[in-house]
Amino acid sequence: MLKLEAAGRTDVGQVRTTNEDAFGYCVDDGIFALCDGMGGAVAGEVASRIAVDTLIERLCAARSLENRHKVLEEAIATANQRVHSRAELDCTLRGMGTTLVALAIGGDHALIGHVGDSRCYLFRDGKLIRMTLDHSLVDEQVRLGQLTQDEADHSPLRNVITRAIGTQVSVAADIAELDLKGGDILLLCSDGLTRELSDDRIAALLAQGGNVDELCGRLIDAAKVAGGHDNVTAILVRAV
Ligand code: CA
Predict the structure, then answer these.
(1) Which of 20, 125, 137, 239 stands 20 to 30 A from 165 (CA)?
(2) What does the domain layout of the chain look like in residue ranges?
(3) Rg of the Cα trace of the chain?
(4) What is the pLDDT of residues 92-102, one digit of tens each?
(5) What is the pTM of this model?
(6) What is the C-alpha separation between 94 and 206, in angstroms, rounded?
(7) What's the 143 CA to ligand 1 centre distance in angstroms?
């Protein structure tokens, strides 16, 4: 039976004055969620907080249910409805939205749900494997062969996401499944990390070893040293 160790950190970065990222987790229930909000004034912060809190509440309440895939889909749908209806009620929050990436782990099985460009990675046997495809304009163009990854990374349109929580009445989440092995590390992160650090750099930092809290701090610090242009958030989960 695998046990989980986890750590999470968020940082406003070196440029912004507010932090629109949010995260939450419940290690004992194997539930982890990270959101990167968007919208004017405080709207981004409100959207990401509502979405994280809804995910944690719904998934922890539903732990005994059989069909975890469906439970995760419904939790994401509820998060979408709550952000969307809050934005409808309050004109200062209109148009707000958030990315979402969530993990639900039971035994040695993990479900990964996401909407937007926050990512999940698996670090296994010294290799970093990206588990999510960004719902972003440039990533979709890369998949269609219209842009190279390098062009995408430097495109002025790289912030444009094609799916978000809360901006529409309903949303389609991508859900992936993974069988975990002892020693695996899962990383959830906002684009403030992946814009500053290449996948190779993230892998090299994780390969240095240490406990999950030290590793998490190392990732955040490296993103800030690299520029810290955006809010940066990471959750690390190690199966032991
Ligand atoms: Ca961001």
Answers:
(1) 239
(2) 17-182
(3) 17
(4) 999 999 999 99
(5) 0.96
(6) 39
(7) 22
d(CA 130, CA 123): 9
Quick: pLDDT tens for 166-211: 999 999 999 999 999 999 999 999 999 999 999 999 999 999 999 9
Cα 206 to ligand 1 centroid, rounded to whole Å:
22
CA distance 178 to 189: 18
Give the Å distance between the CA of 190 and the centre of ligand 1: 6
C-beta separation of 234 from 16 below 8 A: no
Q: Which of 189, 188, 195, 199 is nearest to 226 (CA)?
A: 195
38 CA distance to ligand 1 middle (Å) = 8
- Cα-to-centroid distance, 224 and ligand 1 (Å): 13
Q: Which of 145, 137, 82, 112 is nearest to 235 (CA)?
A: 112
- Interval between CA 226 and ligand 1 midpoint (Å): 15
Which of 103, 95, 141 is CA-nearest to residue 122? 103
Structure-token pair, residue 84: 């969307």
The CATH class for the domain spanning 17-182 reads alpha beta
Amino acid identity for residue 162 in this structure: T
Write out the DSSP string of 47-116.
HHHHHHHHHHHHHHHTTT-S-HHHHHHHHHHHHHHHHHHHHHH-GGGTT-EE-EEEEEEETTEEEEEEES
